[in-house]
Amino acid sequence: MMEKIFKEPEGIFYNGGAILYAITAYVIGFLGLFNSSIIINALATLLLGHAMIIAAYLVHECSHNLVFKKIRFNTYLGRFLSWFCGSSYGTYEDIQHKHFRHHVDNDDVVWFDYEAFFEENPTVFKLTKMLEWFYIPAHEFIMHFIMMFSSFIIPQRKNQRSRNSAVIIIRFSLFLILMLLFPKVGVLYILSYILLLTVLRFMDSIQHDYPYNLTLFTREKAPRKGQYEWEQEHTFSNPHSFDIEAINWLTLNFGFHNAHHKNMTVPWYRLPKKHREFFGESPENIIPFLSQLKIFHKNRVIRIYGNHDDNAPSGRDYLIAARKGETTGGNAASFLTSF
Predict the structure, then answer these.
(1) Is the pTM of this model over 0.85?
(2) Backbone torsion region of residue 253, taken as left when φ is above 0, otherwise alpha when ψ lies between -120 and 50, otherwise beta
């Protein structure tokens, strides 16, 4: 029965297990926030945050229709899991559309010009930099705020205001009740969500070396559309470990990004093998984890603005610099933001 539903027979174990984990870990993690033990609270916060992370990467798999054979089942699951990772304010279809534009156009296709926003709001920019210095993902908070009220901010989404309002009322009411009755739980939930935002942008920040383009709602011809060699040259892989593949399950192998861009029809559990088939066994083709940490720590403030200037390395030079931890990385490029 399950073999007729899942995209591949192996998906029953891998995707079925990931779905079961995301739901179970979310429930157990959330309930653990109510416990009187500080240790259990800490573990539950981490578990809840990781459940959100797995849910987010499953949304990504669903957007590529890689979980189930029928597209509508992928859509149903993607919509459902978007509630877990806080991206339900907008539509799953908008997330999918923007992400496919990223793949097809070979570009970071966006609507929101956050650099212009910071130029027009210097006080917000200063506050964002201060918070980011303390590892608080303020830039992502801005993106999340826009996502929450997207139909009231983005003109092209105004037809979604009824749905957007309903989701806002539901989520805000539940969170308000939580904060009033169990303030500790509300704060710990926020910490779990911060973990989600931090991990997603940690993974996204160095996977491409090109700036964003304000073409989400335009009909401009994508200049790099179909340039597959260029796509691979400017896409980079950042697994947690190249030798111990199971560690990468923590983010559903999202770090094997070159393999994902090489063939979007490959599910997450086959990406490490495909990476080796496409690019060989040499670790020179990936960015080491310690270098990833160095880039994330060293550039946590300066990458907020102007992280793709003309003098920045690109292509092979970017990979060499990134392997040494000497590049800046990007920001606010999560696939969960649909603008």
Answers:
(1) yes
(2) left
